């Protein structure tokens, strides 16, 4: 996803502010910030620190100044931290996610992958982007990652070896994480995932077969 390791939410927010995340990961973070207040103050503080560092940096001559200025002024304006806004009751996706996929949850062209598990996936900016629907109580096969995976919970929740991830939470997983997410039993778990490498199934053969057939 990027060359440096991201293993905490704080590190993810720092890379978001620095502009070093690929576009689908930026959408995931923006969606998280729309859904939860927790990290908005952190992002604002990081933006202030970045601005202060830029102002205190020594002045340096710019090669090809006119071309660079032209590129800057023709680029899209910077995106600020989303403001809290009232959301209609029937709207599940944050605005940033709706803008990316072009629809709401009821219009997603879901494709069944396993019993009790549907997804919609596409590639973007070097990443695999997935929307996932997991039946209540459904366990996904135990696996680890040959890269990095970010998952934003849009509705419902899942539990794994690390704990509970509910609405608005972000799960960060890489090759050091071997987990078996299980959707909670009261409602489906709907999630938005961005990854830059395939998964590798783990666990016993019996558990794997059980998880695959649901």
Describe this entry's structure for a reader.
The chain is α+β, with helices and mostly antiparallel strands and about 210 residues long. The protein has two domains: about 10-75, Orthogonal Bundle (Arc Repressor Mutant, subunit A), CATH 1.10.10; about 95-214, Jelly Rolls (Sandwich). It is about 30% helix and about 25% strand. It has six helices and eleven strands. The protein has helices spanning about 10-20, 25-35, 40-55, 65-75, 95-100, 205-214, and strands spanning about 110-115, 115-125, 125-135, 145, 150-155, 160, 165, 170-175, 180-185, 190-195, 200. The strands form three sheets. It has a six-stranded antiparallel beta sheet, with helices on one face. Strands 7-6-9 form a three-stranded antiparallel beta sheet, with no helix packed on it. A hairpin with a 2-residue loop joins strand 6 (about 160) and strand 7. The longest helix has 17 residues, at about 40-55. The chain is elongated. About 30% of the residues are buried. The model has no long low-confidence stretch (mean pLDDT about 85). This is Transcriptional regulator. InterPro entries: Anti-sigma_ChrR, Anti_sigma_zinc_sf, ChrR-like_cupin_dom, RmlC-like_jellyroll, RmlC_Cupin_sf. It holds the Pfam family Cupin_7. It comes from Rhizobium phaseoli.
């Amino acid at each position: 996803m990027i060359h440096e390791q991201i293993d905490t939410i704080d590190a993810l927010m720092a890379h978001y502010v620095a502009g070093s995340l690929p576009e689908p990961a930026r959408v995931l973070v923006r969606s998280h910030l729309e859904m939860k207040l927790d990290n908005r103050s952190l992002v604002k503080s990081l933006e202030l620190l970045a601005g202060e560092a830029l102002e205190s940096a020594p002045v340096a001559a710019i090669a090809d100044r006119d071309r660079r200025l032209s590129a800057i002024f023709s680029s899209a304006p910077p995106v600020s931290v989303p403001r809290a806004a009232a959301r209609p009751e029937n709207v599940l996706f944050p605005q940033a996610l709706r803008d990316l996929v072009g629809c709401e949850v009821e219009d997603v062209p879901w494709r069944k992958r396993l019993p009790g598990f549907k997804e919609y996936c596409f590639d973007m900016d070097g990443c695999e982007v997935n929307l996932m629907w997991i039946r209540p109580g459904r366990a996904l096969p135990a696996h680890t990652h040959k890269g990095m995976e970010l998952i934003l919970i849009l509705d419902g929740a899942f539990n794994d070896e690390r704990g509970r991830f509910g609405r608005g939470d972000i799960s960060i997983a890489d090759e050091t994480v071997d987990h078996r997410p299980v959707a909670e039993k009261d409602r489906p778990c709907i999630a938005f995932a961005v990854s830059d490498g395939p998964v590798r199934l783990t666990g016993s053969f019996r558990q794997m077969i059980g998880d695959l057939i649901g």
